[in-house]
Amino acid sequence: MAGLSQVLNIAKNAILTHQMSIQVAGHNVANVDTPGYTRQSLQIDPALAYPSSIGPIGNGVTAELIKRSYDSFATQRIMQEEANLNNLTAQNQSIRMVEAAFNEVPGLALNDLMNQFWQAWQNLADNPEVLPARQTVVQQAELVANQLNTMNAEIVRTRNDIGVNLKSALDEANGLIRQLSDLNVQIAAAESDKAKANDMRDQRDVVLKQLSGLIDINYFETNSGMYTVLLPTGHALVENTEHWPLDWENDSLQWVGTRRSTLGEIVDVKTNIGSGAEIGGKIGGWLEIYNRLD
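Above: the chain's sequence. Below: its structure in token form.
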């Protein structure tokens, strides 16, 4: 009877393991088009053997855990390149906006107007007593001044547009930072030694990739399964369940920390992080051109 019970137990484990394999495969198929989804697989190990007089007797298989097909090194490299690409793309888009201000009508381009202006002065030098020559100099000077004012207004408008992009990107970045902190809490609460919150981990990596497109970051996973996200300067954006926002002030990106004042109040402490492309991502690219147009 003991032998029959053992055989039935082996068969039961095999059926359960097979059912779990089918469920994991079905989950993979259902999420084939889900952004950021990482393929999962069922890890199967030999079940604990029965002792006997002739040695341990096999007891079939058992499902140990569901794991992700995940390469942390490759993921980090992809995120770094994403930050570099977005940085250069943002600079390129901004420069194209500036170039539009210099896309002038032939004959009224600044170079043409300056040539006409100096030619008017040459004519006046040759004929200082002629009134039309004097009037021509004044008219050409007005044309040059008007063109310069028009170009300056276009550059100011372009700088303001880039500023709007910067503000929007910072709001998005701070929202993603909060999401990462929240996901840290949810993942740590849902996991045990063997049960991993694979789908939430995929979601967290998607959020992290979006953040890396906005600003250059580094990150690592702690023993609790939480991410610590750092700026290249070492300032933490996310650490366990805490997070710290970013701000933009005095044409510089700032990390916003806190401290306790002498009166015991919690006050913000802002630290300059950078003011150009070294910040990385879209924010660094836009900030680089924004400050050059000042």
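The chain is about 55% helix and 15% strand.
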